[in-house]
Amino acid sequence: CVESALIGLPSVLRNAGLKYICRTVPLRVATDFAVAEEDINPIGARVVGFDSVVAGTVSDIWVDRSEQLLRYLEVTTEVGDAPRQILVPINFGVFRNTQQRERIFYVHALRGEQFALVPGLKDPDSVTFLEEEKVMAYFGSGLLYAAPNRQEPLA
């Protein structure tokens, strides 16, 4: 959420219990959004890193209310010390079908075990701009540094 939207308001209004609306939220909060019947609902799909290690399962979808589009998949991890909820940017992966006809979300940016270190959120129902930047930077850096062969010079 962007609490800074309240900063420019007079203190009388700021302290009057006004609520601000978070831009990017999960479907459990954005009850006016839903997956269209003709589209595939990714909730329940397994998330797999580029090394084919299962990192977790999609537990919710995060939508950008202002742009009306899908931004993140919320994933319950199966790697690391304990299960936790993380956000996976939708543009860092693709949906694929396995040979067993199971739908997976394949993330080409990270190895499976690297999902354990994805930056988390303070509030499970909203994401700040700083948290979004940290998550995007983590996945973006995976494109360059997730494996030793990605660190080699291009020429």
Helix count from the secondary structure assignment:
2
What's the N-to-C terminus distance? 43 Å
Beta fraction? 25-35%
Summed over residues and divided by their number, the pLDDT gives a mean of 86
The value of Rg in angstroms is 18 Å
Provide the low-confidence segments as ranges: 2-10
Structural class designation:
alpha+beta
Give the SSE order as H and E letters. HEEEEEEEH
What overall geometry do the principal axes of the alpha carbons give? Answer: globular
Q: Give the proportion of residues in helices.
A: 10-25%
The counted number of beta strands is 7
Structure description:
With 155 residues, the chain is of the alpha+beta class. Helices cover 14% and strands 26% of the residues. It contains two helices and seven strands, in the order αβββββββα. Strands 1, 2, 3, 4, 5, 6 and 7 form a seven-stranded mixed β-sheet that branches. Strand 6 and strand 7 form a beta hairpin.
What distinguishing features does this structure have?
alpha+beta, 14% helix, seven-stranded mixed beta sheet, globular, 7 strands, 155 residues
Question: What order do the helices and strands come in, and which of them pair?
Answer:
Blueprint: H1 11-14, E1 24-26, E2 46-48, E3 54-64, E4 69-77, E5 85-89, E6 93-97, E7 103-107, H2 129-145
Parallel strand pairs: 2-7
Antiparallel strand pairs: 1-3, 2-3, 3-4, 4-5, 6-7
Provide a concise account of the structure shown.
Helix content is 14%, strand content 26%.
